[in-house]
Amino acid sequence: MLKSRRGCRWVLSRHGFTLVELLVVIAIIGVLVGLLLPAVQAAREAARRMSCSNNIKNNALAMHNYHDTYQVFPSVGYDKFGVNLDTHSWVARILPYIEQSSLYETLDFNVRVNGGTANRPYRLAELPSMQCPSESGTLGESNNLSWAHRRGSYAVNMGNTNYGQHNPNNWDGVWTYTFGGAPFSVNKEKAFRDVLDGTSNTLLMSEVPINQNDQGWQGMYAVTIYTSGAGFTTYLSPNTSGSVDGGRRCWTPSDYSPRNIPCHGGGNWWSATFAAMSLHPGGVQAALCDGSVRFVAETIDLQTWRAASTTRGGEVVDF
């Protein structure tokens, strides 16, 4: 109550929100946030996908530069020591072409990648161009530095059957069509001259998943194919959740269950077939042998996907 100079009294009015009005405003803000959040998340994923595309583009160009120097692509790896292909993968060979010359100088190609300390700096190196921003991979076997590895997101094309690149006449049960050639193989170095289907019709590399379980080895790119980190095949569709007899490189179900990575334990390295996979909604990034990059939908016709991986199938692929 206030009193005027003339002795009159009046009430000073105070206006504010009622509880109901406040709740309505909060509800409206919540609805707006709910509408905007998917758009923000989609924009962030689009940015991550673009960055991933740039990474795979840089790796493809590094392959081209390596080919310009040596007139061949690097092999996926060499069965040099007779111990599960425990040798340097193609990633080691292109290090000078992805601004990692100093790391390349630390490599010892005369000893195994795993075990000991000789190649530990390489195994533990975080290579920005090897990890898709949509991934959040960790070290594998992180409690044992003798075997610890960084994870990577990119693998090279090993064709339409299995890692051993077998034909039906020398493999039992799984393959029902002929291996059509591939730009990468074990113990072999291929070249552009081997890509008879044309560089714009043939896959060079794509994405593979990174396992978040320390004991799961998927995505470890430093060594060759027995860890499923260096190569992929197109026997299965991109982002598949399917299975196939013959094995994909994992040791126990706990190795892959955190990411639902399709895997069938057992078998030898040559029986493995590991699908291209990513965390991008709807498909995977892929580079062609001509260096171009495109996003391949996971709904792509399987026969088209398989044809895109062969080098001598005679197909013209329309992505």
TrEMBL record:
**SUPFAM superfamilies, sorted:** Pili subunits (SSF54523)
Q: Which residues cross the membrane?
A: none
| PROSITE patterns listed in its UniProt record | PROKAR_NTER_METHYL
* Domain DUF1559, first and last residues per copy: 41-303
Q: Per the database entry, which stretches of residues form a coiled coil?
A: none
Q: The organism sits in which domain of life? A: Bacteria
UniProt-listed Pfam families:
N_methyl (PF07963), SBP_bac_10 (PF07596)
Question: What protein name applies here?
Answer: DUF1559 domain-containing protein
Please give the organism.
Roseimaritima ulvae
